[in-house]
Design brief:
Largest interface: A-B, 46 and 48 residues
Family (chain A): Belongs to the TrpB family.
Oligomer: heterodimer
Structural class of chain A: alpha/beta
Keywords (chain A): Amino-acid biosynthesis, Aromatic amino acid biosynthesis, Lyase, Pyridoxal phosphate, Tryptophan biosynthesis
Number of strands of chain A: 14
EC number (chain A): 4.2.1.20
Largest sheet of chain B: 8 strands, parallel, barrel
Strand order of the largest sheet of chain A: 3-4-14-9-10-13
Number of helices of chain A: 17
Catalytic activity (chain A): (1S,2R)-1-C-(indol-3-yl)glycerol 3-phosphate + L-serine = D-glyceraldehyde 3-phosphate + L-tryptophan + H2O
Largest sheet of chain A: 6 strands, mixed
Structural class of chain B: alpha/beta
Distance between the termini of chain B: 54 Å
Function (chain A): The beta subunit is responsible for the synthesis of L-tryptophan from indole and L-serine.
Chain lengths: 421, 287
């Protein structure tokens, strides 16, 4: 980033960027909509105009089921010989933290006088949350989802349809989140005057990364209060899985000023950390750990890309982490050494899934299972008091887990043969 | 740029449009289906009367493109098109029409050893390109690239959308170099059956600015070109309709040349009817 005019950058820093990351790299047609959204963000979210945030909090309480508990995980604590607490975002209505953001943005689009919302989805959790919020607030809703993800996340496709949303499978590329985002941008570029794009993570052009973070920051705000109440102090470390980074930023945001609290973003190491440039494939989604700086989907951030700048296909056993980019604020927190990026592979995540299901009676999302996989591998480095965010529940992933478990010899898995017919 | 009160000398691109008004600007994706073919197609478009030619440097995530150009980009990437291959093609091309590169910002940033726009701009200038269009680079983010382009005498062309109004329009028009790329309708690129009413409104909004205006997004036929020029454009931009020929014709080079001729004739027809109008001698009604 050596060519920027310093004056220009200073001016933009306060608004649109996090260090070198962020910005607004979108087609011109969308710029007025981003300006309109910035205004709405400032007025309704930051200044609570017309009682927007009051209504949002009330709906999150009554419709969304907040606050979620911070639960001491007794058997994990015993296993690792330290205090392990789980932030239970799997208990939010719909089964994941995604509702915090979806309800916030659908409500905001109502306040902005929009007539329709669109969204992209990877694992389907954001699509489900958006569809639920749209039904709840009586707003027409259309969801774009990669064909591969439609096939591996069928229960969520049904749920979106049951809530009245139209689901559009996207055939392009590898049919995952990246392609779904491209297609949603195209829809938005056509319908921008009447439509709000409910982006599903802390990614995209300014002000989305800040807007989504603020809706998700409730996770860390609650967790911070709850751990002080239960353990009498702040944790030594906080662990959250990272794909696009919305549960990560939501969990970390309130802890960022607490210098003594270590923050670990656990990415999907997939089957290997390398990138096959020839094939244009990374068998992982470890963007923070292995990515390089570039521009994708409206923001300067860390990306999985070839040397020439083509975005490579990512991979994770978890559809929700399967993305070649990451939120710009998270990229900056990694660049400034406030957040430590780590990763575990598909096997460790699947073991994490089975372990939590077995030991604690909680079936976690495959996304969250990465955080639990890291806890198993590296608990010695995490201090005596650890908070792990369980970003969602794993019902949606059961088919994938059974299929993937059958292929492997996993230490923590039950005998999955019995599930056959 | 000079500080003189006199206007800066016109660029190759501005000259090409002003001298050929109404100008035909054609687009194809480089490397679709191969760089050798692209060379023949560009030469055909040049012979057919293109006054400017845009060459797409393919990027894997073309969010501003519709299905036609996205498919062309995929074919070009599958064929192994690289930025260096692209520049070597441009090194080889000898056309009357100035050439522009149209690509996404990440492709520009990644050319060279670390993210920086300058190596790309230097190479573009060396290859003989006259300008750059970046669909995902709004004016707010364009300072680094504009400065590099200024230093190397390249135009950085901005897109004006149907949603661009008020202060934003002022800002963009004050930064226009070469021409203003007027987006005919909301949405992505792609051939359409008619000319959008948004085109007329956009051209009306821009009429007070003395910069060349060329209209693209959805233009596919000579009649469209005529209508757009009649509405006040100095040029028409055609892409997807040409990609359809590249993808579907038995003899793409011949058909591209013929299509360029048709589009140019249409544009000229539009200009002639304007001249007639301004001379206040309306053509008699057809019997």
């Amino acid at each position: 980033m050596s060519t920027s005019d310093p004056e220009h950058n200073r001016e933009r820093d306060s608004e649109a960027t996090f260090g070198d990351y962020g910005g607004q790299y979108v087609p011109e047609a969308l710029m007025p909509a981003l300006q309109e959204l910035e205004d709405a963000y400032e007025r309704y979210v930051l200044e609570n105009e017309d009682g927007f945030m009051d209504e949002f909090r009330e709906r999150m309480r009554d419709f969304g089921g907040r606050p979620t508990p911070l639960q001491r995980a007794d058997r994990l604590s015993e296993r690792y010989d330290r205090e392990i607490y789980l932030k239970r975002e799997d208990l939010v209505h719909g089964g994941a933290h995604k509702l915090n953001n979806a309800l916030g943005q659908v409500l905001l689009s109502k306040y902005m006088g929009k007539e329709r919302v669109i969204a992209e989805t990877g694992a389907g959790q954001h699509g489900t949350a958006t569809a639920m919020a749209a039904a709840h607030l009586d707003m027409p809703c259309e969801i774009y989802m990669g064909r591969t993800d439609v096939n591996r996340q069928r229960p969520n496709v049904y749920r979106m349809r049951m809530n009245g949303a139209e689901v559009n499978p996207v055939e392009a590329g590898s049919g995952t989140l990246k392609e779904a985002i491209n297609e949603t941008f195209r829809d938005w570029a056509t319908t921008v005057e009447t439509t709000h794009y409910v982006i599903g993570s802390v990614v995209g052009p300014h002000p989305f990364p800040k807007l989504v973070r603020d809706f998700q920051a409730v996770i860390g705000r609650e967790a911070r209060e709850q751990i002080r109440e239960k353990a009498g102090r702040l944790p030594d470390s906080v662990v959250a899985c990272a794909g696009g980074g919305s549960n990560t930023m939501g969990t970390f945001h309130e802890f960022v000023p607490d210098d003594d609290v270590a923050l670990y973003a656990v990415e999907a190491g997939g089957s290997s950390l390398g990138v096959d440039e020839e094939e244009g494939v990374a068998p992982n989604s470890a963007t923070l750990s292995t990515g390089t700086d570039g521009v994708l989907h409206g923001a300067m951030t860390k990306l999985l890309q070839s040397e020439e700048g083509q975005i490579v296909e990512s991979h994770s056993v978890s559809a929700g982490l399967d993305y070649a980019g990451v939120g710009p604020e998270l990229a900056n927190l990694v660049e400034t050494d406030r957040v430590t990026p780590v990763n575990v592979d598909d096997d460790a995540a699947l073991n994490g899934f089975h372990r939590l299901s077995n030991l604690e009676g909680i079936i976690p999302a495959l996304e969250s299972s990465h955080a639990l996989g890291y806890l198993e591998e590296s608990h010695d480095e995490l201090g005596d008091l650890v908070v792990v965010n369980v970003s969602g529940r794993g019902d949606k992933d059961l088919e994938t887990v059974l299929e993937e478990t059958e292929k492997r010899d996993l230490e923590a898995a039950p005998d999955v043969e019995v599930f056959d017919g | 740029m000079t500080d003189d009160s006199n206007a800066a000398p016109e660029s190759d691109i501005e000259t090409a449009i002003r001298e050929n008004d109404p100008a035909l600007i054609t687009y194809i994706t480089a490397g679709d289906p191969s760089l050798e073919d692209t060379k023949r197609y560009v030469e055909a478009l040049d012979r057919g009367g293109s006054d400017l030619i845009e060459l797409g440097l393919p990027f894997s995530e073309p969010v501003a493109e519709g299905a036609t150009i996205q498919a062309a980009i995929n074919r070009a990437l599958d064929a192994g098109t690289t930025p260096e291959g692209f520049f070597e093609l441009v090194d080889d091309l000898e056309t009357e029409a100035p050439l522009l590169v149209m690509t996404y910002y990440n492709m520009i940033l990644q050319y060279g050893s670390e993210p920086d726009v300058r190596p790309f701009v230097e190479r573009a200038a060396e290859a003989g390109l006259s300008g750059i269009i970046v669909p995902d680079l709004p004016a707010e983010e364009a300072d680094p690239l504009r400065e590099a382009c200024d230093d190397h005498g390249l135009d950085l062309v901005f897109i004006v959308a149907p949603t661009t109004e008020g202060e934003r329009l002022e800002t963009i028009m004050s930064q226009v170099s070469g021409f203003a790329y007027v987006q005919a309708r909301l949405g992505t690129t792609g051939a359409r059956a008619d000319v959008s009413t948004a085109t007329h409104e956009s051209l009306e909004r821009l009429s007070e600015y003395d910069v060349p205006k060329a209209v693209g997004f959805g233009v596919s036929e000579g009649d469209h070109a005529a209508e757009i020029v009649e509405a006040g454009a100095d040029g028409v931009i055609v892409g997807s309709a040409l990609i359809d020929i590249v993808a579907g014709s038995d003899d793409p080079a011949a058909d591209l040349e013929a299509k360029a001729e048709e589009l140019k004739r249409g544009a000229v027809r539009g200009a002639e009817s304007l001249t007639v109008d301004t001379e206040d001698t309306p053509e008699p009604e057809q019997p």
